[in-house]
Amino acid sequence: MGPDPQTGAPPLPVLIVGGGPVGLTLGALLARHGIASHIIEADEAYCQGSRAICISRRSQEVLAWVGADRPLNAKGLPWTGGRSYFRNQEVLHFRMPTEPTERFAPMVNIQQYFVEEYAHQAQDRFPGKCSVSWSTRAVATRPTADGVEVDVEAAGGHRETLRAQWVVACDGARSAVRDHLGLSLEGTQYEGRYVIVDIEQESSRAVERLAWFDPPSNPGSTVLMHRQPDNVWRVDYQIRDGEDPAEAVRPELVLPRVQSHLDMIGETAPWKPLWISAYGAKCLSLRSYRHGRVLFAGDAAHLVPIFGVRGLNSGLDDVGNLAWKLALVIGGASRDDLLDTYSTERLYATEENIAYAAKSTEFMAPPNFAFELMRQATLRLASVDPRVRSLINPRQSSQCSYPAAMLGAGLPGGDRSASPRPGDPAPEARVRTTDERTHLTQYFGGGFIALYFTDDRPVPDSIALRASASTQDVATMTVVRIARKGIPDATTVVDFIGEAWQRYGAHEGTLCLIRPDGYVLACWDQPDWQALSSVLRRILTGQALPQPRLLVGGDA
Amino acid sequence: MKEQDLDHCYTVLSDALAAVGGEKASLLLATLSLSLIVRETDAKIVLDLIAQAGELART
Q1: How far apart, in whole angstroms, are the C-alpha atoms of residue A460 and residue A4?
Q2: Is the pLDDT of residue A545 over 50?
Q3: What are the structural domains of chain A?
Q4: What DSSP string runs through A64-112?
């Protein structure tokens, strides 16, 4: 797309429609890769109400690529498990997989507007690369031969046309861009509806997911509770059959139910309501997340039920997958068909998310008498037979593996039988380095990373083409040697408790190539640097970068 | 039985109950119970489970 014929202004590299947590994070991720973007957001500021409150370990990793994990973890409340009750009796106490040496808690509770603020602030680390226009909405989207034109309307009715090479629609469940292109979400909507209430009340209760089925406080209902920062409780409860959802959010109906439940669990401090909303479970998705030069992410692309906290977390995973690919394409290092793998990989993730979320919804909001009957039986039996308790487990969001064929089809190193396999998330490990980094995942989020498991072998000279690394150049590869003992140096981290070698199934000489988003691209039990180079060249095929630059150093 | 197999059976049984409808659901469950009972060689286990289910159904 050339300059604007009237003003001569060049097109935006990326226009992001929607300045919620997904769009703001995408802007920061692109900025980290050196790609400029502009964000338009229909609202005048960060969101009202707490909305999505559970941030997964994977989402924390994505936010960490732009430094937004620090304020998030300083403010948020980490948690590792939860309890479910049938009436007054505990029938499940679950813990999510976690290790004392891990970088992040499996889940952090925090209001969505804080996530938006931290993602927005993270853009400031990359001056001039990302800007936001608030109170500005998209009113028309017109794909052209080599770009996209978007008519936008700002507060006061001022209209203009923005021209961009690429548009990413992050404009939520009611996506305007989706409507402009005549696209629809497809899938299932469930009958059961929940009221969501935020209240402010001091509490010293442990931070965990709490669920009550048929509690004496609200017979026949299901009540969920999560603690948030600033003495905020999230309370969700299922409304009664036949109850009008519009009526159900009236404070005179909501507040007595909340009071009754607080009384039941012994939370007696004064409280006040902050936000009330209603929610219905949906499993919906577009058939493709790429439509020419328009890409879809987050709720604009897919909607999953809240049970299992896959909504915002899958949106952040979307942009973690998209940002590096878009940066490579815009930078001329890859062909634009790399973006097709964004759609195929994230559609696969949505299918998995919907399968898990549908299972959770069957239990949390039974869609018919049969699921209700089975839930009644499960809850009763769980009190005497622990083997059925897994049916009550909320199946919290976890990072999915992609089939290797999606990006690594036919790649040398794509057929390793040991875990991790190509398409798997690259395992975390505690390591010792020469700087402030303490975990292997802190090397991800920039360019490609080659993890070379060796105690004493050097990296071949043929690979050490350059000795310095740009933190913003996604089209680079950094070799990180992982030794089991010794002292870390600029190119070597020390796996001093053996986690990395164990979790990567490594032997002396094992070589793993990791994508910028922390997924395994290929692994070799013995170092095959030629194969590694050819794998990179399969992705870095653009005119601007005929040969991948291979870098040695810990400056990822 | 693995957790994911139990999950799957739960959904399939629920769907089967929904398919026959509320009037025939108890007949389906009784038939299924008998099928599972004849696969158990120890009658005491079966009788204890029947007693337990009876108690739980009253709660």
Answers
A1: 49
A2: no
A3: 12-74+107-185+283-360 (3.50.50.60), 405-552 (3.40.30.10)
A4: HTTTTHHHHHHHSEEE-EEEEEETTEEEEEEE----TT-SS-SEEE--H
Chain A from 368 to 387: CB within 8 A of any B CB: 368-371, 373-374, 377-378, 380-381, 383-384, 387
Contact between A444 and A519 under an 8 Å Cβ cutoff? The reply is: no
Q: What is the pLDDT of residue A405?
A: 67
Phi, psi of A322 (to 5 degrees): -80, -40
Closest-CA residue in chain A for B24? A370
**Residue of B11, B15, B56 lying closest to A359 (CB–CB):** B11
Q: How confident is the model over A263-268, as a mean pLDDT?
A: 96
Q: Which pLDDT score, from 0 to 100, does residue A2 have? A: 85
- Chain B residue whose CA is closest to A368: B18
The residue that leads in pLDDT, A359 or A195, is: A195
The two structure tokens encoding residue B45: 């286990």
Q: What value of ipTM does the predicted structure carry?
A: 0.98
Cα atoms found within 13 Å of the Cα of residue A175, Cβ hemisphere only: 33
Q: Between A and B, how many CB-CB pairs are < 8 A?
A: 43
The values of phi and psi at residue A195, to 5°, are: -95, 135
| 3-state SS track over A284-330 | EECCCCEECCEEECHHHCEECCCCCCCHHHHHHHHHHHHHHHHHHHH
- Residue B21 backbone zone (phi > 0: left; psi -120 to 50: alpha; other: beta): left
Spatial neighbors of A42 by CB under 8 A, at least 6 apart, are: A18, A135, A136, A137, A171, A176
Contact A173, A189 (CB under 8 A): no
H or E element at residue A482: strand A476-483
Residue B42: its pLDDT value, please?
A: 97
Contacts of A245 (CB under 8 A, 6+ apart): A193, A239, A278, A280
In chain A, residues with a C-beta closer than 8 Å to the C-beta of B16 are 370
pLDDT band at A462 (very low <50, low <70, confident <90, very high): low
Strand partners, A55: A108
A468 vs A53, more confident: A53
User: Which phi and psi angles does A161 have, rounded to 5°?
Assistant: -110, 125
Residues of chain A with pLDDT > 90: what percent? 72
Q: Per the omega criterion (within 30 degrees of 0), is the bond before A460 cis? A: no
pLDDT digits over A280-329, tens only? 888 999 999 999 999 999 999 999 888 888 899 999 999 999 999 999 99
pLDDT for position A546: 37
